[in-house]
Amino acid sequence: MASGSSASTPTSGRTRSSNLELGDLAPAFAADSTDGVIEFPQCLGDCWGVLFSHPKDFTPVCTTELGVLATLKPEFDRRRVRVIGLSVDGLEAHREWAKDILAVTGAAPNFPMIADADRRVAMLYDMLDPQASDTATVRSVFVIGQDRRIKLTLTYPASTGRNFAELLRAIDSLQLTAQHQVATPVNWQPGEEVIIVPAVSDAMARERYPRGWRAPRPYLRYVPAPAPGHR
Ligand code: BEZ
Predict the structure, then answer these.
(1) How many CA atoms lie within 13 A of 40 on its CB side?
(2) Cα-to-centroid distance, 162 and ligand 1 (Å)
(3) pTM for this entry
(4) Residues 33 and 82 sit within 8 Å (Cβ to Cβ)
(5) N or C end of the chain: smaller count of CB under 10 Å?
(6) Is 62 noted as a catalytic residue in this protein?
(7) Which listed residue (47, 51, 62, 115) is catalytic?
(8) Are 88 and 120 in contact (CB under 8 A)?
(9) How many Å apart are CA 31 and CA 22, to the nearest integer?
(10) CA-to-CA distance for 190 and 55, rounded, in angstroms?
């Protein structure tokens, strides 16, 4: 079993005390996975990362999620995002379940799945469900940027499957805003207009956007989306 650092790790049970916040450095750990030992976040290299948990192996909603995620892997690759799953079951269960996922959904997991049987990573990332009768994890998602900082978190209950198309859309927004001082409006989709952030004055905006902008209000300034350039 791999061992890892756990400076802020609660030492027992269901304590939800890691208090990870947006902008925090992703806590480091080493853990066994279906692809061997993972040293996180170093394993991301200069890529972005998605670390996500699901409650348990051989459960229905998770089976559908992992099949879809496997089919979306090229989309994450294109954005230079490494996907890493986690549940509190062991490696043997992960491998057996992968066969089921292939049989049921037509796609087997093509990303590493952490076997967190001792719940060390789940506690470090505050993924344990305080309402669950066992120590299952919730459906957590952590998006980690190239600077190894937490850019986005999601927490869904076990009964609600995630929408991975929305996760990709949010990553497109995060990657765009990491490179340009822009924000993305409601329901934004790649290629659509973006918003100049308030921190950019009109004088600065005139330099950056010599062709001008569309401003229904002085504080709401739209410009065409900059080219994405996935780094
Ligand atoms: C599921 O993945 O289907 C599931 C897991 C735990 C509780 C409820 C649903």
Answers:
(1) 37
(2) 12
(3) 0.90
(4) no
(5) N
(6) yes
(7) 62
(8) no
(9) 23
(10) 31
Q: How far is CA 105 from CA 55, 61, 71, 108, in A?
A: 19, 12, 9, 8
Structure tokens that stand for 134 in this block: 């066992």
Please name every residue paired with 223 in a beta bridge, in sequence order, or none if there are none: 194
59 lines ligand 1 (CB under 6 A): yes
Distance CA 200, CA 222 (A): 12
Q: How many residues does the chain have?
A: 231
Tokens of 78: 């294109």
Average pLDDT, the chain: 91
How far does residue 88's CA lie from ligand 1's centre (Å)? 13
Give the type of residue at 155: T
- In whole angstroms, what is the distance from residue 218 CA to residue 197 CA? 12
* pLDDT, tens digit (0-9, with 9 covering 90-100), for 74-88: 999 999 999 999 999
- The closest of 91, 83, 142, 97 to 117, measured between CA atoms, is 91
Token pair of 48, please? 């972005």
Q: Is the CB of 170 under 6 A from ligand 1?
A: no
